[in-house]
Write a structure and sequence with these properties.
Layout: E1 7-13, E2 18-24, E3 26-33, E4 38-46, E5 52-58, E6 62-64, E7 68-71, E8 76-83, E9 89-98, E10 103-113, E11 117-118, E12 122-131, E13 139-147, E14 154-155, E15 161-162, E16 167-168, E17 170-173, E18 176-179, E19 186-187, E20 191-198, E21 204-212, E22 219-230, E23 235-236, E24 241-242, E25 251-256, E26 262-272, E27 277-279, E28 287-289, E29 294-301, E30 309-317, E31 323-329, E32 336-339, E33 342-349, E34 357-363, E35 369-378, E36 398-402, E37 408-410, E38 418-424, E39 430-440, E40 447-456, E41 460-466, E42 471-479, H1 489-502, E43 508-516, E44 537-538, H2 544-553, H3 565-575, E45 582-588, H4 598-606, E46 612-619, H5 635-642, E47 647-649, E48 672-674, E49 679-687, E50 690-691, E51 697-700, E52 705-708, E53 719-726
Parallel strand pairs: 3-10, 12-22, 24-31, 33-40, 42-43, 42-45, 45-46, 46-47
Antiparallel strand pairs: 1-2, 2-4, 4-8, 5-7, 5-9, 6-8, 9-10, 11-13, 13-20, 14-19, 15-21, 16-20, 17-18, 21-22, 23-25, 25-29, 26-28, 26-30, 27-29, 30-31, 32-34, 34-38, 35-37, 35-39, 36-38, 39-40, 41-53, 43-44, 48-52, 49-50, 49-53, 51-52
Helix pairs in contact: 1-2, 3-4
Length: about 725
């Protein structure tokens, strides 16, 4: 009921007496929904001695059911007043009461309110996928429905009307829609979560309309979805992925070789023991693969991973049974060294073969090691009947070309390695990984060599180089200190001078060290303190060159046990290689490399710092014309080959020229860029995306390098790309 006002008294005179009418002076009806009515009673009391004949007039959104009424002397009568708001907000009016001799007015007031249905204008469902051969699955979501009307109103909902049979306001159960039942009323500010479910039957950009009737009006909801259709995935992948070390991350490619486009939903990797295998940065999932498209991942091995270690890569795709690729890390002989420890054949044209690549096996153990055999543990390729392997036998892509005799014995510290060779022949497009296992007789453990390669329809390879800014370079020269080498010391001075001049400039931050190539157990090889008592000297000092050269004359006469790589490795563990730069080792001797476990020592040296290493050997060769203690037996040459260095003839009076291009591996400035494989046809060369004319460079076919003419090389910090078609070796 509305609030009552003060009582008003009207005195009305008649011929037979006096009438005295009492009533409220105002009526307040409060909140009322528009279109609905609220009633209040007005008490009319005649306190006089004569009857009263009353008439009523009402204005505004108010009304009474009778126009007149008599009220006898001493009687009380109730007049019902109706309030039916037609608009929102405050509504006012007046009730006028008249008799033949007097008039009184009563103020009327009320507040018009109404409910309001609020919901989104559009709901997007998805992703929605259809897979050939699979029944369609419903996709569900919810949206919020509210009564956002004025306070005190109730929203009365009716069942919604849906356009089409694919959309259900509710949920699909066994392909039948179980509809949502709205509540009888919804109070102001109350929120409902309304369920939606879509069971699409056709692909494309789809939309549906849903009408929600209520006493707050009808509201229309648009539901949209992009429905995509996929084929089941048909995967082709390596039979196995072999992980070698934490520094070598094998590259995995899983290719969809079936028709149409398929959808990869999940890709996981696991290991036993757990936690040691992860993926590198890769494409986000879910992933749509067109026919011939591939999932690519780098497989990373965690630090301190145990051996042996096994794992599995698992692919979950729409309409396809889970696809798995096993992973393995095999145990290896702790002191058996294979050089190189892994090999990337680069890009090779599909249907072609790479050049034959050779591997050397060294024994760094204190006891003999017997090699039983070498075999391909993972040869990539496809099984018999694959898309590119129609015959009855599997089609491997990595193959052994040569091996070593069974039960080959490598003595401790032997400088004569066992060898084997491998070739890569891709049968399809994409990246491949493989592995060679050297099987050891006894308990020494097998050793694994990782193989990588990429097949390309045209054999198009693109090499990317970045011209550096100021380079950090550590140069260590190991000089033969034996009596037989004394006559050749002046030759060392002459040949190192050009290199010293080359690195004296703003593009290099150089440390220079000199040590004796003495392999005797008690030699105590150290860096010679040749620059104001310091072990390292700096090219920024104008007098550096003279002090560095004078250090050669001060070298003591040592034993006839000459060794470079093992003393260098020990020295650098103490002195420290700077991260991100170049370490350049130069071994100058007229004798054999007599380091115990030379290949293992080189690998230890390579593992220091985060930069690059170049190991260069200046020794006697079979074709040498001067007097040397011994010509190289192949160890010096193999070490230089394994570490991006040069192997030059000590008897060549200008052997230092071969060292002047050490900058070609990425230090400023350099004008020669070595290619990883032989080109077949023209080269496309770009600097920062700009095509470089062939008048600015030439191809050095002997060293397989692109050499820029003076003033035409990339500027510091610029990126160079060289694209070419790979040659197909015979």
């Amino acid at each position: 009921m509305g609030l009552r006002s003060l009582v008003a008294v009207a005195v009305l005179a008649t011929a037979c007496g006096t009438g005295r009418l009492e009533h409220e002076s105002s009526m307040v009806f409060g909140d009322q929904e528009i279109g609905r009515t609220r009633d209040l009673g007005l008490q009319l009391t005649n306190r006089g001695t004569a009857p009263l004949a009353l008439t009523f007039e009402v204005s505004g959104d108010f009304s009474v059911e009778e126009a007149s009424r008599p009220v006898g002397a001493g009687e009380t009568s109730t007049l019902v007043v109706h309030f039916t708001p037609t608009e929102l907000g405050l509504r006012t009016g007046t009730l006028t009461i008249r008799s033949p001799s007097a008039t009184s007015e009563i103020a009327l007031a009320g507040n018009g309110t109404r409910p309001a249905l609020s919901l989104p204008s559009r709901v997007t469902l998805g992703p929605v996928t259809l897979v050939t051969g699979e029944p369609a699955q419903p996709v569900s979501s919810t949206f919020a429905l509210r009564n956002t009307g004025t306070r005190g109103t109730s929203l009365r909902l009716e069942p919604p009307r849906v356009d089409g049979s694919e959309l259900c306001v509710g949920a699909f159960v066994d392909s039948a829609c179980v509809p949502w039942v709205p509540p009888a009323t919804l109070d102001t500010r109350t929120v409902l979560d309304v369920p939606l479910s879509l069971l699409a039957t056709a692909p494309g950009d789809r939309h549906w309309w849903v009408v929600f009737p209520s006493n707050g009006g009808e509201v229309v909801l648009e539901v949209v979805a992009q429905v995509e259709s996929f084929e089941p995935c048909v995967f082709s992948a390596p039979l196995e992925v072999v992980v070698f070390t934490s520094q070598v991350a094998p590259f995995l490619q899983i290719t969809h070789v079936g028709p149409g486009t398929c959808l990869v939903r999940e890709l996981t990797i696991s290991s036993a023991p757990a936690g040691f295998l992860t993926f590198g940065e890769a494409q986000p999932l879910p992933l749509k693969l067109a026919s011939g498209g591939a999932i690519t991942r780098w497989v990373a091995l965690g630090e301190l991973a145990p051996t042996p270690l096994v794992g599995v890569i698992r692919v979950v795709a729409a309409g396809t049974a889970p696809f798995e690729v096993p992973i393995r890390r095999a145990a290896g002989a702790q002191c058996l060294t294979i050089s190189p420890g892994s090999l990337d054949f680069g890009v090779v044209p599909s249907g072609c073969s790479s050049s034959i690549r050779n591997f050397q096996i060294y024994n760094g153990c204190s006891t003999p090691v017997t090699l039983d055999r070498v075999e391909l543990a993972a040869a990539a390729g496809e099984p018999a009947g694959g898309p590119n392997c129609p015959g009855p036998a599997p089609c491997p892509e990595f193959s052994l070309v040569t091996g070593f005799p069974s039960q080959t014995v490598l003595g401790p510290g032997s400088t004569v390695p066992a060898t084997f060779s491998v070739r890569y022949s891709p049968i399809n497009t994409g990246s491949d990984t493989g592995a060679v296992v050297v099987v050891v007789t006894g308990d020494g453990g097998d050793s694994v060599v990782g193989l990588q390669g990429r097949g390309d329809p045209l054999g198009i390879s693109t090499a990317t180089y970045r011209q550096g800014t100021q380079a950090s370079v550590d140069i260590l020269v190991m000089v033969d200190a034996s009596p037989s080498f004394v006559p050749l010391r002046a030759n060392v001075r002459t040949n190192l001078l050009p290199l010293l001049n080359q690195v004296t400039g703003p593009c290099y931050d150089v440390r220079w060290g000199v040590a004796a190539a003495d392999g005797a157990q008690d030699a105590g090889v150290t860096l010679i303190a040749n620059d104001a008592g310091q072990r390292w000297t700096s090219s920024r000092d104008p007098l550096f060159i003279e002090r560095a050269l004078s250090s050669f004359d001060a070298l003591p006469v040592g034993s006839e046990v000459e060794a470079c790589v093992r003393p260098a490795s020990d020295l650098m563990q103490d002195a420290g290689v700077r991260d991100g730069g170049l370490f350049m080792g130069v071994c100058v001797t007229d004798a054999l490399e007599q380091s115990v476990g030379s290949a293992a020592a080189l690998q230890t040296l390579q593992g220091q710092g985060s930069g690059s290493l170049s190991w260069n050997t200046i020794t006697g060769l079979a074709a040498s014309t001067c007097a040397v203690e011994a010509t190289d037996d192949g160890v010096h040459a193999s070490l230089a080959s394994a570490a991006n260095g040069v192997h030059a003839d000590l008897c060549n009076p200008t052997w230092g020229v071969s060292l002047e291009r050490f900058g070609t591996v990425g230090w400023c400035p350099h004008d020669a860029f070595f290619l990883t494989s032989r080109p077949n046809g023209p080269l496309e060369i770009r600097i920062e995306g700009r095509l470089v004319p062939d008048t600015d460079w030439t191809l050095d076919v002997v060293n397989n390098a692109v050499v820029f003419f003076p003033g035409r090389a990339p500027a510091p910090g610029e990126t160079l790309t060289i694209s070419f078609r790979e040659a197909c070796p015979p």
